[in-house]
Specification:
The protein is an alpha/beta fold and 582 residues long. The chain is built from 18 helices and 28 strands. The chain binds 2-acetamido-2-deoxy-beta-D-glucopyranose (3 copies). One 2-acetamido-2-deoxy-beta-D-glucopyranose binds next to helix 3.
Length: 582
């Protein structure tokens, strides 16, 4: 009898009936194999020793090992490990796979940048990576090399901790516009996730984690609208979530985890862990035996100097470092000022790094046209803010700095548009301003444009001037709707990147400069030796007024209360009264 009692008690109290485990996760690492400085660029060795740097794969590896030795852990990565440093420029996707393999993830999702070298650049990564890569909303049949690739699946079932966990991948359909054109067909995330999750549930998988790269807004929609999904692990918007006082300079967008309630009242935790290896998210989960999420809690871990660096990772990096050092030692020029490439500036308003890059395009064309009678045939250039991926501190600029800041190497070309289309292009740029994930806002050269954001979309330009090309002395002139303007930009933009329409539909002219954007910037710095790009009102903004602000709405009553308080306080506190009078 006592035996039966023990068994009964065990059945009641045994937590093994359900399951507890943790997810550690990160996203948007952008080839930051080495630790990053405060600006997410390359960290100097001496700065790292002083504790001024963060992350790097050697620290990421340590945290993953530590978490795994602590208990039941899945490591999930939400994409965009491609692109961002000289490491990627030299070694591409294959090394991404080698680095990822050292971290032994349980599953990976694809990111937008995973397509930067096209399908041909993704295949070597897939051939080498050992973890399953999940994405349920791409149709690959148009790309034979990806179709039926054994590493790339809609989902994966992980059998660990005496349970089955389904991981369903997703990727923003905007990838089609953000990267090299492919024959992939993207579908909307929610429907695709629901189809795949249903299939897993029908196979008896009761815990479903959505892992993907569509940005924080979509992550929350997935949590709300995918009934079978228990947890959402995201990326792309590089969102920093934290509860309580943040441990470093990043300001949280919301609590960690963000809790989203489904219609049936069930709460779904949504997580992301910023970017550039600076943090590792950690979410503890407890499910009952039906796979219902009972409890969750967690916090991102800051990867500062307290986290030791994994030896094996560092040794592997050293074995490849020589060619990276060459790029790092290659001094291209000097900047006397900070080259501000931060998304918080360049995606929203004129930034001085955007000016420099756009000027380097105009310069490259002017050199090619040097023996013409006019100073150039293309005085205008655009840079999509999303092409700028890091800032550069004042001082010497190396090839490695440029590789981090302007990593895409998109070819340059020019196109001819009428003034009226130039207006439409810039109005569209204003619409993309500061939108989450969107790098479609344009930095400019050869233009002066003023936007008034109090006016309706599509009618925000209040002034637009362009630098003349056929004039003896270049000067800014009002843009005429019927005049033709030649504009230099990347082939990414010309071919409709970020949703732009850069070609005149009636007369599509475009011609390659036979130079890529990175080479143009490098050339500009080499030729000028010293630069100090400034803000010069190329893009003027009148910001949106908020009508519900305290000042306008409560002006009267607030003033009245202040006067009453003032009289009240001064009456009872004569010293203050005297002070006020003085
Ligand atoms: C591992 O457990 C120790 C002791 O509880 C804790 O201090 C540490 O933060 C844990 N590490 C990770 C990565 O979970
Ligand atoms: C311009 O003309 C000079 C002299 O004829 C020639 O040496 C130079 O290569 C030409 N430059 C370009 C860019 O065509
Ligand atoms: C960009 O141009 C530079 C200099 O010509 C070249 O080394 C580099 O390979 C080019 N990048 C691509 C992706 O073509």
């Amino acid at each position: 009898m006592p035996r039966l009692l023990i068994i009964l008690l065990c059945l009641i109290f045994n937590p093994a009936l359900g399951v507890k485990f943790s997810i550690i996760h990160n996203n948007d690492m952008h080839a930051r194999y080495d630790p990053v400085a405060a600006n997410y660029g390359k960290c100097k060795k001496s700065d790292d020793a002083m504790g001024l740097c963060f992350g790097g794969f050697a620290r990421v590896a340590t945290i993953i090992k530590e978490a795994r030795s602590n208990g039941s852990v899945l490591y999930l990565n939400a994409g965009n490990t491609f692109q961002g440093t000289a490491w990627f420029t030299v070694y591409h996707g294959q090394m991404v796979a080698e680095m990822m393999n050292m971290l032994k993830p349980d599953a990976l999702s694809l990111g937008t940048n995973e397509f930067d070298d096209g399908v041909d650049g993704l295949v070597p990564f897939l051939n080498k990576v050992t973890a399953p890569v999940v994405c349920c909303n791409i149709e690959t049949s148009g790309e034979p090399k990806l179709h039926n690739h054994q590493r790339l699946t809609k989902s994966v079932i992980i059998s660990k901790f005496n349970t089955k966990i389904g991981i369903v991948g997703y990727l923003t359909p905007n990838t089609q516009q953000m990267s090299v054109q492919t024959k992939l067909v993207f579908s909307k995330e929610i429907q695709a996730i629901n189809n795949e999750a249903r299939r897993l549930v029908s196979q008896g998988v009761n815990i479903i984690i959505a892992l993907g790269h569509s940005g924080y807004a979509m992550d929350q929609q997935i949590a709300e609208k995918c009934p079978d999904v228990d947890v959402v692990v995201g990326g792309h918007s590089q969102t920093f979530l934290y509860t309580g006082a943040p441990p470093d300079k990043e300001i949280p967008t919301g609590h960690y985890p963000k809790i989203v309630a489904k219609k049936n009242g069930i709460n779904v935790p949504v997580v992301q862990a910023f970017a550039y290896t600076k943090y590792m998210g950690k979410l503890d989960l407890e499910f009952d035996e039906q796979g219902t999420l009972l409890k969750f809690s967690g916090s991102p871990i800051l990867l500062n100097k307290k986290v030791a660096e994994d030896k094996a990772v560092n040794e592997f990096l050293e074995s490849r470092r020589e060619s990276i050092d060459d790029i790092e030692k290659n001094v291209v020029g000097t900047t006397l000022v900070y080259l501000n490439g931060q998304a918080s500036s360049c995606h929203k308003e004129e930034c001085n790094f955007g000016n420099l890059i756009a000027d380097s395009f105009v310069y490259a064309r002017a050199l090619q046209q040097m023996n013409d009678t006019d100073w150039t045939d293309a005085a205008i250039a655009f840079v999509n803010a999303g092409a700028i991926r890091a800032s550069i501190e004042s001082g010497v600029v190396t090839g490695a700095d440029i590789a981090s800041a302007l990593p895409f190497h998109s070819e340059l070309a020019y196109t001819d548009v009428k003034g009226r289309q130039l207006i439409d292009i810039l109005e569209f740029s204003a619409k993309l301003r500061n939108k989450e994930n969107d790098g479609g806002f344009l930095q400019v050269s050869g233009l002066r444009v003023n936007f008034n954001y109090n006016r309706p979309k599509g009618k925000r330009i209040t002034n637009l001037e362009a630098l003349c090309t056929t004039c003896k002395v270049p000067l800014y002139e009002r843009v005429h709707k019927d005049k033709v303007y030649r504009i230099i930009m990347s082939t990414f933009l010309i071919s409709g990147g970020d949703g732009h329409r850069m070609q005149d539909p009636d007369n599509p002219v475009n011609s390659l400069l036979r130079l890529n954007e990175t080479a143009a910037l490098t050339q500009y710095l080499q030729h000028h030796k010293v630069v100090y790009p400034m803000l010069e009102n190329r893009i003027g903004n009148v910001e949106k007024r908020h009508r519900t602000s305290l000042g306008t709405r409560f002006h009267g009553p607030v003033q009245f209360i202040l006067i009453v308080l003032f009289v009240h306080c001064t009456f009872f506190n004569p010293t203050k009264f005297i002070l006020y009078l003085g």
